[in-house]
Amino acid sequence: MRWDTPDGDFMDLDFLDGANAASGSTPRPLLVLFHGLEGNSSGHYALAFARAAHAQGMDFVVPHFRGCSGEINRAPRAYFAGDYTEIGWVLERLRQDHAGPLYAVGISLGGNALLRWGQEAGRSARASAAALCAVCAPLDLTACGLHISQGFTHLLYGRRFLHTMKPKALQKWAQFPGLFDREALLRARTLQDFDQVFTAPLHGFGGALDYWKRASAGPELGRLRLPSLVVNARNDPFVPASSLPAAGALPPDVVLWQPAEGGHVGFPSGPPPGNLGFLPTQVLNWFKQFT
Question: 35 an active-site residue?
Fold first, then answer.
């Protein structure tokens, strides 16, 4: 389904209706999944959550961040890790169209953006969502951005992201010549370079470090006023364990789950290659208490 956005752009959403819901007039719950950097509805984690939602009789939807559904978006902007205004607009519209409970999951970049929405919305967030969960979110974007821009992590992961991000940015420049420094983008070799040239200026930030600091959800977890599960494996190759928050002064609505293993949105169970249904099932079971 395609929605027109308030600024004249569009957003594509993929819906799955729950098939195992009990009969009767009780509205089904809706699970909303916000994907990660360069993700989409065909990602392994999106499919795993879709299967879990289907099994539990829930409706399911993946809203695609702009430019991630296979077609370049119209506006002179893209998406970024702190895009809480976009998250809020999506959840409010889904809430208007859906009578049952609504739960939101954000994966990686989408998890940070979802938490930022919860922080900015405060107590009003409960009008849109019953509870939320952030999975493997880069809560300290500076620590994570520097980590993935250096050494082995850059070689293994950073270059893979740039392989799709740079061509999409060049498409955006073709739409809007002069929108950013094209030559500097061509020279970009790390995610920090890319965010400095493209992400930060397109979305109102003074540079990569300013973007990372202002968009990070980690320092403001105490502002959340709705049930929030924050899941981070301590062996995540994208998110240094030293950057993860401690439970300390967090409000009771905020639950941290930091298992020793799980990688980045993996959490396989059983013999190799493992079953990816463990994490989605745990998250949906946690949501059930907030009907």
Answer: no
Count of residues for the chain?
Answer: 291
Catalytic residue (choose from 35, 228, 236, 243): 236
Helix or strand (DSSP H, E) at 103 = strand 102-107
> What pLDDT is stored for residue 275 in this prediction?
82
pLDDT tens-place string over residues 224-263: 999 999 999 999 999 999 999 998 889 999 999 999 999 9
Q: Annotated catalytic, 108?
A: yes
- Give domain 2-140+221-290's CATH architecture: 3-Layer(aba) Sandwich (3.40)
Exactly one of 41, 108, 128, 228 is catalytic; which is it? Answer: 108
pTM value? 0.95
* Greater model confidence, 276 or 271: 276
23 catalytic? Reply is no
The CA radius of gyration of the chain, in Å to the nearest whole number, is 18
- Segments making up each domain of the chain, as ranges: 2-140+221-290, 142-215
